């Protein structure tokens, strides 16, 4: 049997190489199908990896608590419209929710920032020092401000990369420089490492961090002292996130004196939730990919079946001769199946090459990140094999069922 | 020794639309090992039908056919294929070589379906080609060979598996006189030296003269069955 298969494969290759154009055109459907899938999967995975990196840039096991909407005489404000979360909430959460490894808070406003003769309009965040650790911010120069800075409402600032580029000349030393936020002088003590785009698409590096107390007393002019824009918390393990969310809800509802039926006046989101949104987007992409792949593999398969039917007719006499010298039905069946599979696998190989080249070109020309996936390549092969077998079966069976006498007489 | 072929009351009936065609009407025939039988008859006499049935390419509608003691009349297709592979060799009028395939590979074909190793297939096929005088032409394609040479490749293919019977259906029908003579002397040699039973279908009496037994068919029946000294012996 191994000799039989080897020789049959050799025969199939010879027959196909004899009709190169025909074989090429037949394979085209498979080539396009497999190529499209490989390229699209590569692009999809590249995009997904980019999104995952964005989600990861939020920090590790982060929980974000936003103030909820309020209802004033039946008119509902939007999310974050209410001033319901406070520094006290953060402190209490840390005390009463053992799963939380840290809590932090932040409040932001867009302000005019001036450095010498340059100025920039960007978001200024008043934060607790713990916010920096929760969000995993690191520094390219200088370092974070301290708890003491927070308590003494020190005029120190940390600036992001985008802010740095807009306020300082290239090569100009930012650490130690004095910038003015709403006319209040601040000393730059740290330059933040870049994080890139957030999962929502905003530039995370266009940012200035100052101590929360300094912000509310000297810059923002807050109406209610201690009210924050958002609370941040983190857990040691990602598995603890759902339980931590429940604990936070319980503590906050108690603190805000919400009765049984009353809705939460805050919204809790975790990194996992944000990742899920992206996941569903990529799932839509996968379904579309699958549809494209199915259609082109179907078309490719029909092409293979068509050409094999032609081949069976052309080679009727040969089939008769083979039967006369002792080929069993299974031998004839195998011969044509092997030809079909050879065609489809060749198409698959070329398709994989086309797909990889396509993905690389996308990266080079459009600058999209792509990841060549081994899984996609393997499944492309399996599918081409399947298409060859499935669509080869009918013509091969037709050949195997020929009557040897009629086949020998066929003109 | 038991006869190689035993047929009893062999019938073959085709149905073409509403018309019933009785191609064979009760054939009784016994052929011993080593016989050289010529089957003659006009077209439509049933000689090809008989050869197809004896050659295990077809099965009778009714009647008994035993080949080497094996009941063929009711055998399954795979057993028929096995019999064709091991017991039977065919030589056709139109050679029926596989196009664009070398002489060697054509001659290998029966061994290919026996599942021999490629090396063994090549060795035996080369020996068979040498036997028919085609040593050195192993890699030629059918189109590069003359009619007589193509028929010799076909004979090599028929004898490579060491069959007990060789069926030749008008083997010289497409050949000139000289080539015909070559082919017939090869067949005669195979019959004499190797003791291969040969059943030759022809309508040319000078070709039939090589045989030691002559069957004449008419309307699906054997009308004459003559044993005689073959032609070459007569000439000598």
TrEMBL record, chain A:
Return the protein name: ABC transporter, permease component, putative Macrolide export permease protein
Species source reads: Nitrospira defluvii
> Domain MacB-like periplasmic core spans what residues?
24-250
The entry's keywords? Cell membrane, Membrane, Transmembrane, Transmembrane helix
Q: Which residues cross the membrane?
A: 21-43, 287-312, 333-359, 371-394
Which cell locations does it reside in?
A: Cell membrane
Presence of the UniProt keyword Manganese in the record: no
InterPro entries from the UniProt entry: ABC3_permease_C (IPR003838), MacB_PCD (IPR025857), Macrolide_Exporter_MacB (IPR050250)
Pinpoint the ABC3 transporter permease C-terminal domain residues: 291-404
**To which protein family does this belong?**
Belongs to the ABC-4 integral membrane protein family.
Cellular component GO terms, alphabetically?
A: plasma membrane
One Pfam family it belongs to: MacB_PCD
Q: Which domain of life is it from?
A: Bacteria
**GO terms of molecular function:** transmembrane transporter activity
Give the way it sits in the membrane: Multi-pass membrane protein
UniProtKB/TrEMBL annotation, chain B:
Which spans are transmembrane here? none
Molecular functions (GO terms): ATP binding; ATP hydrolysis activity; transmembrane transporter activity
Q: What is its EC number?
A: 3.6.3.-
Q: Which UniProt keywords apply?
A: ATP-binding, Hydrolase, Nucleotide-binding, Transport
- Keyword Transport attached: yes
Give the UniProt entry's GO cellular component terms: membrane protein complex; plasma membrane
The residues covered by the ABC transporter domain are 5-236
Say which domain of life the source belongs to: Bacteria
Q: Which InterPro entries match?
A: AAA+_ATPase (IPR003593), ABC_transporter-like_ATP-bd (IPR003439), ABC_transporter-like_CS (IPR017871), ABC_transpr_LolD-like (IPR015854), MacB-like_ATP-bd (IPR017911), P-loop_NTPase (IPR027417)
Q: Which Pfam families match?
A: ABC_tran (PF00005)
* UniProt cross-references to Gene3D superfamilies, sorted A to Z: P-loop containing nucleotide triphosphate hydrolases (3.40.50.300)
Q: Name the protein family.
A: Belongs to the ABC transporter superfamily. Macrolide exporter (TC 3.A.1.122) family.
Could you identify this protein by its name?
ABC transporter, ATPase component, putative Macrolide export ATP-binding protein
- Species whose genome carries this gene: Nitrospira defluvii
Which lineage?
Bacteria, Pseudomonadati, Nitrospirota, Nitrospiria, Nitrospirales
């Amino acid at each position: 049997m191994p000799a039989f298969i080897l020789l049959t494969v050799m025969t199939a290759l010879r027959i196909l190489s004899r009709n190169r154009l025909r074989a090429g055109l037949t394979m085209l459907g498979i080539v396009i199908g497999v190529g499209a899938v490989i390229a699209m999967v590569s692009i999809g995975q590249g995009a997904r990896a980019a999104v995952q990196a964005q989600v990861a840039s939020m920090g590790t096991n982060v929980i974000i608590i936003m103030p909820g909407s309020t209802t004033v005489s039946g008119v509902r404000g939007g999310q974050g419209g209410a001033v319901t979360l406070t520094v006290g909430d953060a402190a209490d959460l840390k005390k009463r929710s053992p799963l939380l490894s840290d809590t932090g808070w932040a409040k932001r406003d867009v302000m005019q920032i001036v450095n010498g003769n340059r100025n920039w309009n960007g978001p200024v965040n008043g934060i607790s020092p713990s916010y920096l650790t929760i969000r995993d911010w690191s520094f390219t120069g200088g370092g974070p401000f301290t708890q003491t800075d927070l308590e003494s409402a020190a005029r120190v600032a940390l600036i992001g990369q985008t802010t740095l580029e807009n306020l300082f000349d290239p090569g100009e030393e930012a650490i130690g420089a004095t910038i003015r936020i709403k006319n209040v002088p601040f000393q730059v003590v740290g330059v933040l490492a870049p994080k890139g785009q957030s999962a929502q698409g905003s530039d995370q590096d266009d940012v200035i961090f100052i101590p929360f107390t300094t912000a509310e007393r000297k810059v923002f002019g807050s109406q209610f002292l201690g009210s924050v824009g958002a609370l941040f918390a983190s857990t040691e393990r990602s598995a603890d996130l759902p339980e931590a969310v429940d604990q936070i809800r319980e503590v906050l509802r108690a603190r805000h004196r919400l009765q049984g039926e009353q809705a939460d006046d805050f919204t809790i989101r975790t990194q996992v939730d944000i990742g899920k949104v992206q996941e569903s987007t990529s799932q839509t992409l996968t379904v579309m990919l699958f549809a494209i792949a199915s259609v082109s593999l179907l078309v490719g398969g029909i092409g293979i079946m068509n050409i094999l039917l032609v081949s069976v007719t052309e080679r009727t006499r040969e089939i008769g001769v083979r039967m006369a010298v002792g080929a069993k039905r299974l031998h004839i069946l195998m011969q044509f199946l092997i030809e079909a599979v050879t065609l489809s696998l060749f198409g698959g190989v070329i398709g994989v090459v086309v797909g990889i080249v396509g993905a690389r070109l996308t990266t080079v020309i459009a600058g999209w990140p792509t990841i060549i996936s081994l899984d996609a390549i393997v499944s492309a092969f399996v599918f081409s094999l399947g298409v060859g077998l499935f669509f080869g079966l009918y013509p091969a069976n037709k050949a195997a069922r020929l009557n040897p006498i009629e086949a020998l007489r066929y003109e | 020794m038991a006869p190689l072929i035993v047929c009893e009351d062999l019938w073959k009936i085709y149905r073409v639309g509403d018309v019933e065609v009785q191609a064979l009407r009760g054939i009784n025939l016994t052929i011993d090992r080593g016989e050289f039988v010529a089957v003659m008859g006009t077209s439509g006499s049933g000689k090809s039908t008989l050869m197809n049935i004896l050659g295990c390419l077809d099965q009778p509608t009714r009647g008994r056919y035993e080949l080497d003691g094996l009941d063929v009349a009711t055998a399954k297709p795979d057993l028929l294929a096995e019999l064709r592979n091991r017991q039977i060799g065919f030589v056709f009028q139109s050679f029926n070589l596989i196009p664009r395939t070398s002489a060697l590979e054509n001659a290998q074909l029966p061994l290919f379906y026996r599942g021999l190793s490629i090396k063994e297939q090549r060795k035996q096929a080369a020996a068979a080609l040498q036997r028919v005088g085609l040593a050195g032409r192993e890699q030629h394609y059918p189109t590069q060979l003359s009619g007589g040479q193509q028929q010799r490749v076909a004979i090599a293919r028929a004898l490579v598996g060491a069959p007990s019977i060789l069926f030749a259906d008008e083997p010289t029908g497409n050949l000139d006189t000289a080539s015909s003579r070559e082919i017939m002397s090869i067949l005669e040699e195979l019959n004499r030296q190797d003791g291969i039973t040969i059943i030759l279908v022809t309508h040319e009496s000078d070709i039939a003269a090589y045989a030691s037994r002559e069957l004449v068919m008419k309307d699906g029946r054997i009308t004459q069955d003559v044993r005689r000294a073959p032609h070459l012996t007569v000439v000598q």
